[in-house]
Structure to design on (1178 residues):
């Protein structure tokens, strides 16, 4: 079995989260490896969240503004 | 629909018909006949037992007569009101006085056969007519074998077929043999652009909806081959062209330019004969033919017009003028397809515009009979109990359930820590589901909710309101987005999608456990509007706001009001735009509530919905004004392409420059014997990617004007698709009848303008002759289209997002066409996207209507996502105040110590303050550190579970 | 934020490519799809956490725990906040500038705290050669010296 990474994405409500919704509305497809946490803005991102994510064994962390 | 149903100030009368309207504008009396439903709406719980046991079958009109239903029924589960009814014509009890089964099975005893028709006299100040559209005449369909060959279906029938709650539960089966069609044809302009069945106009929406249906068919049956037969591809709406092209590329549609004259049946398949533009004759067999039916006036339109004393146009739709597309007569307004075929955004704009008209008309009486929506007090006891999470996993029809195993997700959720209740729900946003949700909250004593459904950006406010109705604080809900960001994007991998949905639900539950009640704050609104831009849109929006009773500051950068419209000399509708504009400017300038700033610009806007402060720079200095809302009507410009030798030869003009000439009458056309117009000059894939929507009718209008002034002048119009949608089609037909020559070109072979001596020639490839030809022209007129302003400082100040093309982006393309992501800011006119004057005016009224909502309300509720400071923890370092991009944090002295304080109404909840606070003294409503950390940890838990499982396996 | 995170990851010994920040506006569905697809591809190539790093999960876990403590540490957060304030004041958001400032103002503390935790742990397992400690943790000789001194002081207290 190929390696399926577990990726945690923090998405900004107004930008990337909205873009992700619109990708859904347009029925695009993308790899199902991402788990998404909605934040109101990338400004909310605390370095702590990223270390915490790796501590929770994320293979990658994506922040989408 | 649900929202309207929930408003305490809207009474919905269904099964009702206006019999007569009497009285004067502002003081009408409407006699309304309400037919009996035979079901008491207050008692009915929409359980569906009556329908289940009803022995009497009836044809299912809602499903386009493709299925059977019962005499006791509800048409569709989300219907408002969510109450069953009994079909008078079919019911055994009502017709033969025998049966009563429904009465016996109905638990709450809601069935009542004694109900009689009721006449109600309503006192109303104004009327808005929105009866929608009707079906095109039968003969328009019969021409294509509809009703003779079962596999010829209308687009509406196919729409029902594709629906999961439709007759085949979403399976595409052709009616003759219930097989899956492999070759499908869409025939456009059925009952549209067809003089032979008295439907001469274009229905405007079919090209786009055919594309949408074809795309959905492809999703259902990827192996299907789909051909679409067009005369012109009319996807002139904002962003439509791009969507169309994307779909053609993605799904490999076969786009054919031909009008198919008829359909024949051959050995169980359907044969189409057609001629393509190169003159070749084709014969092709299909399994299914879909007729893209047009929009006709609603049934009974004449009767309706008579009752209300209003006029219809020659096509049977409500007659309005180009200057005022919303008014039928004083006090009676119109919105939607009854005014002419139109798509959802235009209908919504008209609806908001009509509401603004009513609000202008009834401004004096506003608020007199208002009912405030009241919520029950919050149940403190329940909220303070240990966490009890309820999880609802929504099917969203098949939108989610078609991909994600919702049953498995529910079972999984049930076992998560803190969860005491989990269930599936077909449509969680439906009225009955919301009622049920409240009931379950009470029964199960839930104090935290997780809804796994669509995006919180779609329905979170709706669920929050439901929570409030159930006595819970609105912040105690978390949504797991398993539709837009899961089912829809992982359709090809249901297993992975289900795994993702489970993870998202687990993370949402983890966050929900940490949710705390938050207070809603109310902020007063300054009852004034700032309107930026003094063109047709800005002027008419300003006038509407002022007429609705609020002050307006109107800012125009030029020395004169009028904008783009000043250069327009004629309107397609035949009215004089300059006269109209002058009148509009006069009204605005003398209006006591409007202050006009000319040669002015907006330097700075600070604040938030309800309380903006702006600096307006005028020649003599600057002025600071306070206002509650902003309407952005900054316009756009006529595009200037560096193509087709524009600027190199005086013989090459734009359409507006031609209008200048035409305005001088016959003199303007002296020695002009041949005019060549080039459409899409610079648009649709050249300098500009979009379609400018108005150039086709503008060209036809000017061509006709040339023919009026100088009938012997030859006019050629070179085009890609003639987009004279709606009633503009009449002008197109007239132009052809009067000898205007239309030649199509393709984007691969655009025409060329060649200079020859002092003259110019236009070279174009003729598809029929298969050769290039040259037309010597005395004038070449370019339809240059509309380009967005290169820089829009106002949009930058207000942080309004832009589309790829550079137009202002609305909050929702279809449902919120005049609002933007920023609260209290509204958009209209060309700044939003190219459109003809009639639509600009409707949109301006819509923006004014929406803008007056907070002004009339007098206060706004601040969403509880704002940050707050724990003063005990705060060390007064001031990092947060320095970093806040909205200046929403001030440093204050509390007991001689510096502390940070949040200005709630200015806070956008971005969280910069929280993430930079050294001592975690700042929490963000709904996005606290604890909640997010818990969510991250929950993300990790699955990994552990897996490892444990693997270890167990190995051990075994 | 991103730069700080990268420095922390570097110190912990996680490939910085595993963390990615980018922007897509609300209208840019296709762009979002591309970002996500590309990033997933990149992580696939890196393999599970620890693999591309050549470090076992236990070691990473231990260091991450130290990093978490660091991120909650008030002094570190104050430095981090003040740095953000300084950058905003200067108005210079160029990556070079930010990188330089982070390196100067934050990196020493990041390294110290994460390394200190690990060295302490290693020492608790028994005496270790200086060279071995250096190799194991990637600390410089100087860093190692200061850390050992602090540890001594703390112990004597």
């Amino acid at each position: 079995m190929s390696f399926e990474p577990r990726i945690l994405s923090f998405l900004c409500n107004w930008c990337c989260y909205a873009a992700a919704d619109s990708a859904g509305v347009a029925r695009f497809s993308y790899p199902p490896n991402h788990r998404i946490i909605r934040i109101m803005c990338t400004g909310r991102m605390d370095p702590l969240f990223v270390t915490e994510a790796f501590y929770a064994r994320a293979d990658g962390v994506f922040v989408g503004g | 629909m649900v929202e309207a149903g929930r408003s305490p100030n809207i009474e919905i009368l269904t099964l009702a018909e206006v019999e007569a309207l009497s009285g004067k504008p502002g003081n009408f009396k409407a006699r309304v006949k309400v037919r009996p439903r035979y079901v008491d709406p207050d008692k009915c719980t929409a359980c569906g037992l009556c329908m289940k046991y009803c022995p009497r079958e009836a044809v299912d009109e809602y499903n386009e007569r493709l299925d059977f239903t019962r005499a006791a029924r509800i048409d569709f589960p989300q219907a408002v009101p969510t109450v069953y009814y009994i079909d008078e014509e079919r019911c055994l009890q009502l017709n033969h006085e025998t049966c009563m089964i429904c009465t016996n099975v109905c638990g709450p005893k809601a069935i009542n056969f004694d109900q009689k028709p009721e006449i109600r006299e309503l006192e109303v100040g104004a009327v808005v007519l929105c009866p929608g559209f009707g079906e095109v005449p039968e003969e328009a369909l019969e021409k294509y074998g509809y009703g003779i060959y079962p596999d010829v279906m209308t687009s509406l029938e196919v729409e029902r077929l594709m629906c999961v709650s439709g007759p085949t539960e979403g399976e595409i089966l052709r009616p003759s043999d219930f097989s899956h069609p492999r070759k499908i044809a869409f025939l456009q302009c059925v009952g549209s652009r067809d003089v032979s069945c008295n439907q001469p106009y274009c229905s405007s929406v079919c090209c786009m909806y055919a594309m949408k249906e074809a795309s959905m068919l492809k999703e259902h049956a990827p192996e299907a081959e789909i051909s679409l037969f067009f005369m012109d591809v009319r996807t002139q709406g904002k962003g439509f062209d791009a969507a169309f092209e994307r779909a053609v590329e993605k799904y490999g549609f076969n786009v054919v330019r031909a009008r198919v004259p008829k359909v024949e049946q051959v050995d169980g398949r359907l044969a189409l004969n057609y001629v393509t533009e190169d003159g070749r004759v084709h014969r092709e067999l299909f399994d299914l033919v879909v007729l893209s039916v047009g929009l006709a006036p609603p049934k009974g339109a004449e009767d309706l017009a008579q009752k209300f004393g209003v006029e219809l146009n020659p096509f049977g739709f409500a007659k309005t003028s180009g200057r005022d597309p919303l008014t039928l007569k004083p006090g009676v307004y119109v919105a939607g397809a009854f005014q002419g075929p139109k798509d959802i955004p235009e209908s919504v704009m008209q609806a908001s515009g009509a509401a603004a008209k009513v609000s202008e008309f009834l401004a004096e009486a506003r608020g007199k009979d208002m009912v405030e929506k009241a919520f029950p007090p919050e149940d403190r006891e329940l909220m303070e109990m240990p966490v009890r999470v309820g999880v609802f996993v929504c099917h969203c029809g098949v939108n989610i359930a078609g991909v994600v195993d919702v049953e498995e997700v529910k079972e999984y959720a049930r076992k998560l820590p803190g969860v005491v209740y989990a269930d599936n729900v077909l449509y969680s946003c439906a009225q009955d589901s919301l009622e049920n949700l409240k009931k379950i909250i009470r029964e199960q004593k839930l104090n935290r909710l997780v809804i796994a459904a669509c995006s919180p950006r779609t329905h979170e406010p709706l669920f929050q309101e439901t929570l409030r109705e159930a006595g819970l604080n609105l912040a105690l809900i978390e949504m797991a987005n398993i539709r837009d960001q899961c089912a829809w994007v992982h359709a090809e991998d249901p297993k992975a999608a289900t795994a993702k949905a489970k993870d998202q639900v687990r993370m949402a539950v983890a966050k929900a456990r940490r949710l705390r009640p938050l207070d809603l704050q109310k902020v007063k609104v300054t009852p004034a509007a700032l309107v930026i831009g003094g063109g047709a849109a800005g002027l008419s929006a300003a006038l509407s706001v002022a007429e609705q009773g609020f002050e307006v500051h109107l800012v125009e950068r030029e020395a004169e009001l009028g904008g783009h419209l000043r250069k327009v000399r004629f309107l397609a509708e035949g009215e004089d735009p300059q006269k109209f504009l002058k009148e509009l400017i006069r009204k605005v300038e003398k209006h006591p509530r409007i202050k006009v700033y000319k040669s002015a610009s907006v330097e700075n806007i600070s604040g938030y919905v309800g309380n903006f402060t702006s600096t307006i720079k005028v020649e003599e200095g600057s002025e600071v004004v306070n206002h509650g809302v902003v309407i952005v009507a900054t316009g756009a410009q006529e595009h200037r392409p560096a193509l087709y030798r524009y600027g190199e030869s005086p013989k090459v003009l734009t359409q507006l420059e031609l209008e200048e000439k035409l305005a001088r009458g016959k003199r303007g056309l002296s020695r002009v014997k041949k005019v060549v117009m080039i459409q899409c000059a610079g648009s649709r894939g050249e300098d500009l990617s979009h379609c400018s929507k108005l150039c086709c009718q503008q060209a036809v209008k000017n061509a006709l004007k040339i023919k009026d002034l100088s009938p012997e002048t030859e006019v050629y119009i070179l085009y890609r698709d003639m987009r004279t949608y709606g009633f503009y089609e009449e002008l197109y037909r007239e132009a052809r009848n009067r000898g205007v020559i239309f030649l199509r070109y393709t984007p691969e072979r655009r025409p060329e303008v060649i200079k020859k001596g002092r003259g110019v020639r236009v070279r174009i490839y003729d598809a029929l002759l298969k050769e290039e030809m040259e037309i010597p022209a005395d004038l070449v007129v370019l339809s240059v289209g509309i380009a967005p302003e290169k820089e829009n400082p106002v949009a930058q100040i207000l942080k309004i997002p832009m589309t790829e093309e550079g137009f202002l982006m609305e909050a929702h393309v279809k449902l919120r066409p005049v609002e933007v992501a920023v609260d209290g800011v509204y958009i209209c006119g060309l700044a939003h996207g190219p459109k003809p004057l009639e639509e600009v005016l409707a949109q301006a009224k819509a923006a004014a209507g929406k803008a007056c909502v907070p002004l009339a309300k007098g206060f706004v509720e601040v969403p509880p996502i704002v940050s707050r400071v724990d003063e005990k923890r705060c060390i007064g370092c001031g990092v947060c105040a320095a970093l806040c991009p909205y200046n929403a944090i001030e440093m204050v002295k509390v007991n001689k110590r510096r502390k940070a304080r949040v200005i709630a109404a200015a806070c956008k909840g971005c969280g910069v303050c929280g993430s930079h606070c050294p001592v975690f003294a700042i929490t963000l409503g709904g996005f606290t550190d604890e909640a997010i950390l818990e969510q991250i940890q929950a993300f990790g838990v699955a990994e552990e579970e897996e490892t444990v499982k693997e270890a167990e396996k190995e051990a075994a | 934020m991103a730069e700080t995170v990268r420095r922390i990851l570097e110190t912990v010994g996680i490939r910085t490519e595993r963390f990615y920040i980018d922007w897509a506006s609300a209208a840019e569905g296709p762009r979002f799809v591309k970002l996500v697809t590309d990033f997933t591809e990149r992580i696939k190539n890196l393999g599970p956490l620890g693999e591309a790093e050549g470090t076992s999960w236990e070691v990473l876990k231990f260091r991450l725990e130290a990093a978490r403590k660091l991120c909650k540490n008030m002094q570190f957060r104050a430095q981090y906040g003040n740095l953000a304030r300084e950058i905003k004041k200067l108005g210079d958001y160029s990556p070079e500038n930010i990188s330089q400032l982070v390196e100067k103002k934050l990196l020493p503390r990041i390294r110290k705290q994460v390394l200190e935790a690990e060295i302490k742990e290693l020492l608790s397992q028994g005496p270790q050669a200086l060279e071995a400690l250096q190799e194991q943790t990637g600390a410089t000789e100087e860093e190692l010296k200061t850390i050992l001194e602090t540890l001594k002081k703390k112990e004597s207290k």
Summary: The interface with chain B takes residues 1, 25-28, 33, 72, 74-75, 77-78, 80-82, 84-85, 88-89 of chain C (CB under 8 Å). The longest strand of chain C covers residues 19-22.
